[in-house]
Amino acid sequence: MMLGTWSFSARGCERAWPQLVVGGESLDAVCAAAREAEVDPTVNSVGFGGLPDANGQVSLDACVMVAPNRCGAVCAVTRHLCVTDLARLVMETTPHVMLAGEGADVFADSLGMAASVLLSADAKSAWLKWRSGDVSGGTTDHGIDRGAAIGVASAASAIGERMVAHDTIGVLAIDTRGVMAGACSTSGLPYKRSGRVGDSPIPGHGLYVDPEVGGAVATGNGELIMGVSGSFLAVECIRRGATPAQAVHEVLERIERHFHPGPEQQIGVIALARDGTWSAGALRTGFAVSVADGAGIRAVAPEFVLHGAPHDEGRST
Ligand code: ASP
Questions:
Q1: Which of 10, 62, 146, 210 lies at a CB distance of 3.0 to 4.6 Å from 185, suitable for a disulfide?
Q2: Are 297 and 14 in contact (CB under 8 A)?
Q3: Residue 216 CA to ligand 1 centre (angstroms)
Q4: Alpha carbon of 275 to ligand 1 centroid (Å)
């Protein structure tokens, strides 16, 4: 099965699913799903098309994880697009876990990966509007999944053009051999301070996988997730006997308790136990989770929302 953050990850699941069901590896599946979002210019929070930092520079973060001793990451990449593949190459070809900034780009150059322009015309014009003080280029639509807002419960293709993509793609998959893998890819918070890196590329924060237990992904305001080691915390809760729903709840409550998040701050967490049971939750309405399993590929509302009913989408449209 596959689980992904936000409804736009259903398109990545659709891409990866045919190989996964015929015996493909979970690591290939999660990388394929993340790559799908990275190359999609309509996804304004991942890869090409991602909104830039305050200086107009797009910088990308990603990580992959199969086990505590098998993870790789890159952050603040400014010249290469397929950062999930790059993170995987850090894991597979170096003794390190994370490469940052120019060092990560030089590593990609050394592997012969083609350099890319990351700033799309739409992202540039949104940034110019934001810089001129026009809030319509701003950040308020992040954290609200329009796919969820229109009641999406069917296949990703049904979401169609109306879907507005949001936030980090984080994907977990279990393959036919029972091996779990996860990937996470983002352009980070829109208009962030230059040099800022969030939770997404850091094992234990944006993504954590322990084959003895399961995996988890967090998305939303990375500073809050980093404060509680969100994805690690979810997996640890499951290790100690919690259900995935209880684990996700614990992460959100811990964030609530320490940060008292404002209405503009959103966190979504998904957790998948090694037996295939899973859950998703969010601080507030607007989050969606994509699921691929024997019943098909679909984007659904999370099991619970700390502030508000999962289907109360009044503030989302
Ligand atoms: N967690 C990401 C970050 O803080 C952003 C997101 O998931 O929307 O960089």
A1: 62
A2: yes
A3: 15
A4: 28
Around Cβ 275, how many Cβ atoms within 10 Å? 11
pLDDT digits (tens, 9 = 90+) for 26-76: 999 999 999 999 999 988 899 999 999 999 999 999 999 999 999 999 999
Residue 220 Cβ contacting ligand 1 at under 6 Å: yes
- Per the CB < 8 A criterion, the answer to whether 292 and 302 are in contact is no
Is 270 near ligand 1, meaning CB less than 6 Å away?
Answer: no
- Pocket flag, ligand 1, residue 189 (CB < 6 Å): yes
Structurally, the chain folds into a number of domains equal to 1
Residue that the structure tokens 């590929």 belong to: 297
**DSSP alpha helices (H): ranges in 40-187?**
83-93, 101-110, 121-131, 146-149, 156-159
Using alpha carbons only, what angle is made at residue 240 by residues 287 and 173, rounded to the nearest 5 degrees? 45
What pTM was estimated for this model as a whole?
0.90
Per-residue pLDDT at 148 = 43
Which residues of the chain carry a pLDDT beneath 50? 140-141, 148-165, 310-317
Q: Is 145 in the pocket of ligand 1 (CB under 6 A)?
A: no
- 291 inside domain: yes
Residue 317 lies in a domain: no
In a domain, 315, yes or no: no
Assess whether 139 carries a catalytic annotation. Answer: no
Test site for ligand 1: of 184, 186, 202, most ligand atoms within 8 A of the Cβ: 186
Domain that holds residue 58: 2-310
**Ligand 1 midpoint to CA 186 (Å):** 7
Q: What is the mean pLDDT of the chain?
A: 89
Considering the domain boundaries, does residue 69 fall inside one?
yes
The DSSP secondary structure of 180-192, one letter per residue, reads EEEEEEE--STTP
CATH number of the domain bearing residue 191: 3.60.20.30
pLDDT in tens, 247-266: 999 999 999 999 999 988 99
The residue contributing the CA closest to ligand 1 atom 8 is: 167
Given a contact cutoff of 8 angstroms between Cβ atoms, the answer to whether 51 and 45 are in contact is yes
Take residue 277 and report the two structure tokens written for it: 């049971």
